[in-house]
Fold:
Amino acid sequence: MPPCTADTGADRTATARVGPGRAPGTSLNPGHVTSDDVDLGGGLPASAYVDPGRHQAERRAVFAREWIAVGDVGRLDRPGSYLATTVAGYPIVVVNDAGRLRGFHNVCRHRSGPLVWDGEGTCRSLVCRYHGWSYSLQGDLLSARDFGPDPPAGDLSLVGLAVGTWRGLLFVNLDGEAPPLTGWLGAVVARCAPWDMERLRVVHRSGHDLAANWKVYAENYQEGYHIPLVHPGLHRQIDSSRYEVELVGPAAFHSAPTRDGSITNGAWLWRFPGFALNLYHSGMSLETYWPTGPTSTRVEYTFFSAPDAPDGEAEATVENSVRVLDEDRVICEAVQRNLTSGSSRPPVLSPRHEGGVALVHRLVERALAVVPGDDIA
Ligand code: FES
Ligand SMILES: [Fe+2]
Structure:
């Protein structure tokens, strides 16, 4: 379920952020989950949410192969600026090399030291924090400090990764054979076409760690079934009974009308495994998440606002969103405790509401079938 939501009050500016009501008849099953080919059966066993081997397999089969959003390109707008982070356990660094963005594993070729500590900054070269080997911003080894009479032999360039930008957002892909980013985004591109995303400015960045497997969070995002119980404030604003999730390949598009029946024109978009975008008339929010362990997930948000947004609206949006996100955190962590307990039984999915949950299961299983095994990538 999209996290960026309206206030619980009757403020019209806020309710307009909630999202679109889709015209009757545009889905296969109006008012219900729609899907091109989702089979609800099966589900994942509880072990899929706790097993360390499964975690490593999903890191490699899912997060090392899909595009992962890491924020906005504005973080790297100056030559020499860099962003280092750890995505699903993979340490990465993206640098602005005279206007061109390049990505590398943040792992020195000497003995795997870090080139930069996680965070942001500027540099003219990448100098390993362990013994001081230095690399150009193209990733070439410049010097192996005090190595010996002769320099080390062979190609010791940094190991690269793909960097992509799309409409102001920054993505990385660890797969050397990654498809182009826009092709990967697929139907998301057309859904965002009407929106003037480029005029928006970042107003807030934040994130938190969640004590739950990443799939618990992904599944939670994919249904509005829980809104009446978990998000009472949001429930007072939108008609949860008419919440829809339209599935298009590995993407999902959410919608729900407001209770007053007003016409809204937002867009809630999700793309497997961890990319979510919430567009509304005066801004948008990016949400991205990835596993940090078998039962832990990192969730990061970037909020954008239009220059002409009413005073205080961006702050109100962030505040409201943080409340809903925390409500999701609490329920996801409770679900994880039950999955870990050994008391859990296989899931039983609602055909009305949980086609998106089944989609998560299917895409994960498909990825693991392509890249089997439980060893570390
Ligand atoms: S590990 Fe990088 S210089 Fe030694
Ligand atoms: Fe939720």
Notes: The first strand starts at residue 68 and ends at 72. The chain is about 25% helix and 25% strand. The chain has two domains: 12-65+190-370, 68-165.
